[in-house]
């Protein structure tokens, strides 16, 4: 970090800001990309100021954490998922758990719809909410308390599956998550890999699998739901 001006350092690492911002799913009109880039630059400047090379942590990794942190701190103040949507998600989990305990098998979407007295579109909306909640922090989605609202910070996407699995979760949770992923179908594992490791968009995944974007979103929501349940059982 020596031998260059602060402006040169910012320009050198500016792509890190773009990288983080490009992986953020923001369903709010309060912030556009330029807003998030400006906030991210503040995080980058903070990283340049506080980085300690003696810690043996690559600057890029440290900077990404600081950039994300700056964005999270800003957007968490005003952006929350509605209590209504979270109630629907919680109702879904309860319904599926009740049905699985009663039927002793994996339940179908139709059975969940009948149990909750909702239609297929309403269930699709719930899966979309699950995808939205999970679209980045797996730890927050899988291990969060059952609060009645979820802040936008819970939707910031990790840079790779390694970040999601190796940095954010504790060792015992890591093992449980690996076991949960191992028992997923090949298709589900592929979707996780394409989304978190290869960093494909929903549209790109839909083209790879030859299905609609909405279907990819629904499948992703189901996968996260399965992971959460498997991990909770493993850690119980």
UniProtKB/TrEMBL annotation:
The UniProt record lists the RNA polymerase sigma-70 domain at 201-227
Name of a matching Pfam family: Sigma70_r4
Q: Name one GO molecular function term.
A: DNA binding
- Give the highest taxon in the source lineage: Bacteria
Arranged from A to Z, the UniProt key words for this protein are: DNA-binding, Sigma factor, Transcription, Transcription regulation
Biological process terms in GO annotation = DNA-templated transcription initiation
CDD domains membership: Sigma70_r4 (cd06171)
Task: Please name the InterPro entries in this protein's record.
Answer: RNA_pol_sigma-70_dom, RNA_pol_sigma70, RNA_pol_sigma70_r2, RNA_pol_sigma70_r4, RNA_pol_sigma_FliA_WhiG, RNA_pol_sigma_r2, RNA_pol_sigma_r3/r4-like
The UniProt entry, under SUPFAM superfamilies, shows: Sigma2 domain of RNA polymerase sigma factors, Sigma3 and sigma4 domains of RNA polymerase sigma factors
Per its record, how is this protein called by name? RNA polymerase sigma-70 domain-containing protein
Which source organism? Enterococcus cecorum
Q: Upper taxonomic classification of the species? A: Bacteria, Bacillati, Bacillota, Bacilli, Lactobacillales
